[in-house]
Amino acid sequence: MDENSFLRIFSKINIKKAFQKCFILECLIFFYLLFMFKNIVHSETTYVSGRISFDTVWSASCNPYIVTSTIEIYGDTAAAVQLTIDTGVIIRFESGTGLRVGNGLNKGILRAIGGSVEPERIKWTANTGTPVRGYWGNIIIDDGAADYDTLTGDGTVLENCDIEYGGEYFSSDENIYIYNSSPGIKNCVIRESRANGIRLYETSNSLIEGNTITGNGAYGIYLLNSTPKPVITKNTITNNGNYPIRIYVTAINGLRLDNIYSMNSPDMVEVMGEIISEGYIKFSDTGIPYYINGNIELRYFRADTNVRMEVGEGVEMRIKKDCGIGVGSHAWYMNTYPPELKIKGTVSNPVKITSAEPVPGRGDWIGICFENGNINGLSEIENCEIEYAGKSIYWGYPYYQTLWYGGITLIGGARVNMNGVKIRYSKQHGVYNAGGDLIIDGAEIREND
User: Fold this and answer.
1) pLDDT digits over 214-267, tens only?
2) What distance in Å separates the CA atoms of residue 45 and residue 43, rounded to the nearest whole number?
3) 14 φψ region: left (φ > 0), alpha (ψ -120 to 50), beta (else)
4) Which are the contacts of 412, defined by CB distance < 8 A and separation ≥ 6?
5) I want to staple 374 with a disulfide (CB 3.0 to 4.6 A). Which of 196, 228, 307, 328 is the partner?
C-alpha cells in the first residue's frame, strides 16, 4: 500500500467518525430541546385575579388558570364586558376565591362552552392535590349578567363544564349561585359542593338542561324563595345529601318530566307551600313522590285572576305533618271568581295523597278543605286515594277561620264532584259536609274514626 492509499483510507475513517459524532450531538440536542419544550408546555401557568373590565378570552394554551382572588366580570350600565372561556380550559381556584358575573346594574357576560368529551370540556375545580367539598367559593351569576336566549344562544351560559368542590363557607354554599338572572346551565357535571349543586334566588327564568348533578352535600337544585321560575329538564340528579330538588308550588310547571332521580336522601321533590292567587299549576308524575312542605292555599284576590291547580294521574303527594290543601275562602266577597282544584287520576293510575311521616298515623295532616269561595262546581276529585288526614285545626284567610273535620271538608256553599275516591284512616270523618254541595259517585270511605 502506498502513502496516498493510506491517507485516503484514514480520511474516510475520520470522516465517518466525525459524522457519527455529529449525529450523536444532533440527537442529544434534539432530545434536550424536546425535554425543555415539554417542561415549558407543562409549566405554563396563568395567574388571574380581580376585575375583568374589557372583553377577554381564556384559552387552553395557557392552562391551568389559577384564581388567586375572586374574578369579577362587569362593565357599566351601558355596555357589558364578556369573558369567553374556550374548550379545554382548566380553572383552579384558591381557597376563598370564586367568580362573579355582573354587578348590580353593571353588565357582564360569561360564555363558557366546552366540548362534549374530554379533554375539551371546561373544568372548574380546587387548586389542591387533595380537594374536598367547599374548598373554594362558587360561580355567582348576578343580576347584571346577560340572560341566556334559548333561541339565539346569546347571553350567559355554562355548557359542557365540570364544576366541583365549591360552596366554601364564606360563600353561599353551592357550586353555582344564580341571583336575579337567567343563565343557561347545559350539559354540565355539577358535583361535590359543600351544600347545593345550584341555588336560585329572586327572579330567574334560567334554563337548567341536561346536567348531571351528583354527590353534593345537600340539595341538587335549591330554590330559595318563590320568585324563580326556571325550566328544569333532562337532568340526572343523583346521590345528593338531601332532596334532589327544592321548589315552590308556583314554579312547578317548569319542572319537566324527563329528569332522572336516584339515590338522593330522600328521593322526593320537596315542594314549599304557598298561597296561590293567580295562574294555572299542574303537578305531573315525576316518577318520585312530592313532599309537600307547608300549606297549599288556592285563594281568589282579584277579578282578573283565574286560580286553578291540577294534579295528574300517578302523582303521589306526601303532606307534611299538620299541613293541608285549602280551596276557596270563607270570605263572602271572594266567591265571584272561585279557584279550582282538579285531581284527575285514572283507575289504573290513581293519585295518592298521604302522610309524609315515616310511620304514618291517623290525623298526621289536615286534609283537603273546600270553602264557600269554591261555589262554581268546577272542582273535581277523580280516582284519588286520601289517607291519614283529619287533623283538627283552625284554617282560614283573611278574616274567617274554619275548623276542619275530615279527609275532605266542605264548608258553606262549596261544590265538588267526586268519583272513584278512596278515603281511609282519617282521624275523624272521611268526608265532613257542612252545607256544601257534594256529588259522590263510586267512593270507598272506610276505616275512619
Assistant:
1) 999 999 999 999 999 999 999 999 999 999 999 999 999 999 999 999 999 999
2) 6
3) alpha
4) 330, 371, 372, 434, 435, 436
5) 328
